[in-house]
Each structure stands twice: as structure tokens, then as C-alpha cells.
């Protein structure tokens, strides 16, 4: 049931913060600010040096089982998981979902074994169909900036059962278009954190996160 619950929570929240940084401490601060701003789904990418430290620290402080209105409520996951070894290490560190840049069948099998939601990156109908056959519940359309929201309608012609989350290139200006086109959620990357990194003021992450949540709610309404 936990896999189903996490998947439903991710869809309900609708916005995933995809966090990259130079240190685990920096990413933890980004995550805290994102959560404070209203983005409750946090993806710590494995490109972060010692990323598992950040996942472990965040998993100890936040929980998907906490009340949704609690300041301790968040869903912590791992991104850029290239293989099942990485996925398993992240799961043992507390990751509750796994995201990859591409479709790696062995990673999907590993996540299914431990009942962990897995969101592989796909670009083609063939890859999306393969992901569905492997038991994937949500497919990450990546890189999203290579497509327009019309891609979702095109995919859902032959594959209406596919749940799609675009990541890469999603911004405040086009988030609404993606949601209205049928995206079940969106992944937000550098646009969320770039200004904060440039200025050193990480409170800007919380402000940008709040803007994304506002845009998401407006699109859903």
C-alpha cells in the first residue's frame, strides 16, 4: 500500500523540486526552503556529492506519513538514479521514490521489488510503452524542454493510460499549459534555485516555490 500512497501523494502535490548543488548541506537548505514555500515533493539528485547524506538527513526530519498540514510533512526521493545499485542505496538512506534520466529496466525491477515508486525518463512512445509494460505508474517526460505540452496529447492518443510528468524546461510561464494538457505533475529544476545560488540568499527558493504552487493551483482550478 505504501507505493500506492506515495504515488497518490505525489500526484496530489503536483510539483516536484529537482535539487542539485555543490554540497549535501546546500541541497538540504534548498530542500527546506522548497518545503517552506509549499513544494512538498523533493528529489535529491545523485549528481550531488555525497547525495545520500542529504537524503538521509531530510528523511529523518520529514515524513510522508506526517499530517499534510504539518511542517514535517514532505516526500523525499532520489533523482538521477542510473542503475539499481544506486536506487537501492538511496532507498536504504530513506528515499521514498526513485527517478531516473532514462528507462533502465533493472532499476524498475528493483523498485518494484521493494514497492517504491519509480519514474524513469522517456522520450518516445516506444520507451513509454516499455515503461508501462514494466509496471511504471508515472513516466518522466525528459528532457521536457525538447517538447511542448502538445506532446502529452500526442502520447495519450495511443497510450491514454500513461501518466506523464514533464521535467526540464518547465517554468512559471508554461506550468499551466503542461497541467491543462494532462500532466499528472511537473518537475522543477534550476529555475527554482538558480537565483538563490547566484545571490547566496536561499530564502528566494521558498519565494519561488510559493509562486510555483500558486501557479499549479490556478491551473488545476
UniProtKB/TrEMBL annotation:
It is an enzyme of class 4 (lyase). Belongs to the KHG/KDPG aldolase family. It holds the Pfam family Aldolase. Keywords: Carbohydrate metabolism, Lyase. It comes from the Bacteria. The keyword Lyase applies. Homotrimer. The gene is eda. InterPro entries: Aldlse_KDPG_KHG, Aldolase_TIM. Pathway: Carbohydrate acid metabolism. Gene3D superfamilies: Aldolase class I. This is Bifunctional 4-hydroxy-2-oxoglutarate aldolase/2-dehydro-3-deoxy-phosphogluconate aldolase. Its EC number is 4.1.2.14, 4.1.3.16. GO terms for molecular function: (R,S)-4-hydroxy-2-oxoglutarate aldolase activity; 2-dehydro-3-deoxy-phosphogluconate aldolase activity. The keyword Signal does not apply.
